[in-house]
Design brief:
It comes from Massilia yuzhufengensis. The chain is an alpha/beta fold. Helices cover about 30% and strands about 25% of the residues.
């Protein structure tokens, strides 16, 4: 059967995204065919599209979606036709009406969570889950620094930190985004366009600095992030929104007090079925309890994926964005 999908045959700007017909077959062993009701838009998609992250071309695009299982192949028992499901990760190809994909990526979506919310929260919500519970286990009363606090991951992080009793210092680029971060639970907000981030962190912490920095911005914030850390603090670099972090000397970590640094990925933390199910269960619990609300702030038609990428890269989005088939 034919279905509409976004494909790219070369890497580059948003203009390389092509809205076209693709053939969708039957699922093989270990696979499922999913009809999407909503598709998540994430910054990592722009890395694959631009060529920053390697992609075997021609290719689909997209890491996240929610919909209904239409068919399953042999050996698939954890989901069945008719199940509401959501996923993050796996082979690129979420930007599509229907796709065949590895079934081990799919988790059942609770009835209380909509398809739009499911598509918007999996990659970002699971990211916050592992960052706060596994990469560095946050404790009540701690003060942390989280860059891009008004983005999709950031707004979930603000709420999750508040639920844990953690004081989150969020950085943003405008007063509008500052208000958004505060409304979602950020204890303190720094506008990096008008304030000195390191100086403000020193003031907020009484000179103590923070034990951990979560940085998805990359090149533009890296050095400042290191300067905000306590001795033996942890730098968590989990994205490159401003470009890749340039090579640096390990002595930079020594001179600031024996710092640690890690470059985690969701796919390493959710690499087994039991781990994925446990992470998803905790995320769903936070959302169903109301402690974390995932707000879809922008919606684009699947055909308008290129325009969605322009909005994302132009920093014209807040919260989460979905594509609708």
């Amino acid at each position: 059967m034919l279905a509409k999908a976004i494909r790219l045959s070369t890497t580059g700007g948003p203009e390389v995204l092509e809205y076209t017909d693709v053939e969708v077959g039957e699922p093989g062993a270990g696979e499922a065919r999913v009809r999407h009701h909503a598709i998540g838009l994430n910054y990592i998609d722009t890395y694959f599209r631009s060529g920053l992250y390697p992609l075997s071309l021609p290719s689909g695009l997209g890491q996240e979606g929610a919909g209904v299982v239409e068919a399953v192949g042999e050996d698939v028992t954890h989901v069945a036709p008719g199940d509401r499901v959501a996923y993050a990760g796996g082979p690129a190809g979420a930007y599509s009406e229907v796709r065949v994909m590895p079934a081990n990526m799919l988790v059942r979506l609770p009835d209380a969570i909509s398809f739009e919310t499911g598509a918007a929260m999996m990659l970002q919500g699971l990211t916050v889950q592992y960052l706060f519970t596994s990469t560095y286990k946050l404790q009540p009363g701690q003060t942390i620094l989280f860059h891009a606090a008004a983005g999709g991951v950031g707004l979930i992080a603000c709420q999750w930190a508040r639920a844990l009793g953690v004081n989150l210092i969020g950085t943003v680029g405008s007063e509008e985004k500052a208000a958004l971060a505060r409304a979602h639970g950020a204890a303190h907000v720094i506008n990096y366009n008008t304030e000195d981030v390191v100086q403000r962190v020193l003031e907020i912490t009484g000179g103590a600095k923070v034990p951990v920095v979560y940085d998805s911005v990359g090149k533009d914030t890296f050095a400042r992030s290191l300067d905000c850390l306590q001795p033996r603090g942890l730098m968590v670099s989990f994205g490159n929104a401003s470009g890749a972090v340039p090579p640096f000397a390990l002595t930079e970590l020594a001179s600031r007090g024996s710092l640690y640094i890690t470059r985690p990925t969701l796919f390493a933390y959710a690499s087994t079925r039991p781990a994925l199910e446990a992470m998803a269960a905790e995320l769903f619990g936070m959302v169903e309890s109301g402690k974390v609300k995932v707000e879809v702030k922008q919606r684009f038609a699947l055909a308008d994926a290129a325009e969605a990428h322009r909005a994302l890269e132009g920093r014209r989005t807040t919260g989460s964005t979905v594509l609708l088939p």
